């Protein structure tokens, strides 16, 4: 059962060429068909046979949420499945994506938005799938010391510390002053279809600041922006902020804690305060890889699920060992103390302000590995909200697209075998139609139901509405 500190498990449940996405996926049990009744549970794919491709190269970015890959390698879970896996750090998310599409990488630790965007043809066109979600939460938003000094005096206090969550409305006077000086307020995120981009945009908009809209072919997304966002690779975030190029950023760990340790910035909010238990990275592969190597795909997933379980087991008892592994130069390569500052049940917002954060990194608890259709739909709604999807789409289009990319049938094939072998408990595998149900826990109080994406989009004060499009001159 779930332990008091939050580790363990609990049982609860544009675009040119966007057309109808067909779901004729060879391995699907029923997970890629939109014809099934809404209440019908997803069933496992049928996977049998020997490993077809034992030698694999998998990519990652130097972030703590790549941990399931490192642990599967270092604890021998890949080897137990008959896999010889090489893990290779990538320079940035674009290089990683191109490596998977081009076949230089057999799969990778990916931004959840990457296989979705590739499938609908945003940025690049490729048939990628996500058969496993790697974690929940794990990001934060950090501002420079200069910005923190400008806003902290007006923030409410609680128990002698700044009250959390901190609203982006605190930035309004600073943003206004910068814009009046002709110096736009700039913040960084890691990629146009990253969770970080959407979380930063969500937080800003919830605080009454417009983060800007995208036009066709535009990767800047600064139309009508109060705050301008730009791309910076995760390990470069602290140095870019220190140089004054950006005044804050949204990134995964350990690069928020790195700013604290370097005394150059202050994290102001974690992503679980923006959306509690939000889905983060996925394991992404090409659709044709899964079709050609079904037993290999299942073996990879089994090893990663075992790693996820290990990471959350026994009240987080394995986290110090995980931090030691991740601190190696061939993985994240940050100091042990920097990684441990967010991965062992605590999070430091500022010197002297360390708070309990048992759920900051969740890998196995709360069905963290299951790739819910509704998670994919949330990302698609944010792409539409900010103009990356340039035209209105039907609710059915959102469902069909999600089912073409997120593959719970493949996850279940792997997880059910682990249950059968007594490796993971049956209660850790959800019985679901692929949707989480209505979700709350957002900073703006708006609820999300993945089955009604257009109704969800209509709730936002800031964001594209039905019938609106974006041009260089503004929203029409």
Describe the model.
The protein has 476 residues and is α+β, with helices and mostly antiparallel strands. 33% of the residues lie in helices and 15% in strands. It has 2 domains: 246 residues, D-Maltodextrin-Binding Protein, domain 2 (3-Layer(aba) Sandwich), CATH 3.40.190.10; 140 residues, D-Maltodextrin-Binding Protein, domain 2. It is built from 18 helices and 16 strands. Strands 2-1-3-12-4 form a 5-stranded mixed β-sheet, sandwiched between helices. Strands 10-5-11 form a 3-stranded antiparallel β-sheet, sandwiched between helices. The longest helix is centred in the middle third of the chain and has 19 residues. It is found in: Endomembrane system.
Summarize the structure.
It comes from Croceicoccus naphthovorans. Keywords: Cell inner membrane, Cell membrane, Membrane, Transport. The protein is α+β, with helices and mostly antiparallel strands and 476 residues long.
Low-confidence spans: 1-38
Average residue-wise pLDDT: 92
Which architecture of the largest domain would the CATH scheme give at its second level?
3-Layer(aba) Sandwich
The count of strands amounts to 16
Strand residue percentage: 5-15%
User: Which geometry do the CA atoms define?
Assistant: globular
Helix share, percent: 25-40%
What is the CA-based Rg, rounded? Answer: 21 Å
Helix/sheet category: alpha+beta
CATH homologous superfamily descriptor of the largest domain: Periplasmic binding protein-like II
With strands numbered from the N-terminus, the spatial order across the biggest sheet is 2-1-3-12-4
| Distance between the ends | 52 Å
Biggest β-sheet description: 5 strands, mixed
How many structural domains are formed by the residues?
A: 2
- Give the class-level CATH name of the largest domain: Alpha Beta
């Amino acid at each position: 059962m779930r332990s008091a500190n939050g580790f363990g498990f609990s049982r609860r449940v544009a675009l040119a060429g966007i057309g109808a996405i067909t779901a004729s996926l060879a391995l699907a049990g029923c997970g890629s068909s939109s014809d099934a009744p809404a209440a019908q549970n997803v069933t496992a794919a049928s996977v049998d046979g020997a490993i077809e491709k034992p030698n694999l190269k998998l990519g990652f970015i130097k972030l703590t949420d790549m941990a399931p890959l490192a642990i599967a390698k270092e604890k021998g879970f890949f080897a137990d499945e008959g896999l010889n896996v090489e893990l290779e750090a990538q320079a940035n998310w674009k290089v990683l994506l191109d490596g998977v599409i081009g076949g230089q990488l057999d799969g990778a630790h990916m931004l959840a938005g990457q296989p979705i965007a590739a499938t609908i043809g945003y940025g690049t066109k490729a048939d990628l799938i996500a058969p496993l979600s790697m974690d929940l939460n794990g990001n934060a938003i950090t501002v420079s010391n200069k910005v923190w000094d400008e806003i902290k005096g007006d923030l409410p206090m609680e128990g002698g510390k700044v009250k959390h969550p901190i609203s982006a409305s605190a930035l309004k006077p600073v943003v206004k002053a910068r814009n009046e000086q002709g110096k736009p307020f700039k913040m960084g995120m890691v990629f146009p279809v990253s969770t970080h981009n959407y979380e930063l945009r969500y937080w800003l908009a919830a605080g009454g600041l417009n983060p800007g809209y995208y036009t066709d072919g535009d990767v800047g997304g600064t139309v009508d922006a109060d705050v301008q966002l730009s791309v910076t690779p995760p390990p470069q975030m602290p140095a870019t902020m220190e140089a004054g190029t950006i005044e804050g950023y949204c990134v995964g760990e350990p690069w928020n804690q790195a700013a604290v340790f370097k005394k150059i910035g202050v994290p102001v909010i974690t992503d679980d305060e923006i959306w509690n238990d939000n889905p983060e990275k996925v394991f992404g592969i090409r659709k044709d890889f899964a079709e050609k190597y079904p037993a290999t795909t299942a073996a990879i997933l089994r090893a990663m699920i075992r790693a996820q379980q290990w990471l959350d087991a026994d009240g987080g008892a394995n986290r110090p060992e995980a931090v030691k592994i991740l601190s190696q130069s061939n993985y994240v390569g940050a100091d042990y103390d920097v990684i441990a500052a967010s991965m062992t049940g605590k999070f430091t917002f500022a010197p002297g302000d360390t708070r309990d954060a048992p759920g900051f990194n969740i890998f196995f608890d709360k069905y963290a590995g299951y790739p819910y259709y509704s998670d994919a739909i949330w990302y698609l709604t944010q792409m539409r909200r900010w103009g990356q999807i340039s035209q209105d789409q039907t609710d059915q289009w959102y469902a069909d697209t999600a089912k073409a990319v997120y593959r719970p049938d493949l996850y279940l094939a792997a997880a059910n075998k682990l249950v059968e072998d007594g490796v993971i408990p049956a209660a850790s595998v959800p019985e679901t139609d692929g949707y989480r149900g209505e979700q709350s826990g957002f900073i703006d109080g708006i609820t999300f139901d993945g089955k009604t994406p257009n109704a969800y989009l209509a709730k936002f004060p800031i964001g594209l509405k039905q019938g609106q499009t974006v041009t260089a001159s503004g929203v029409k």
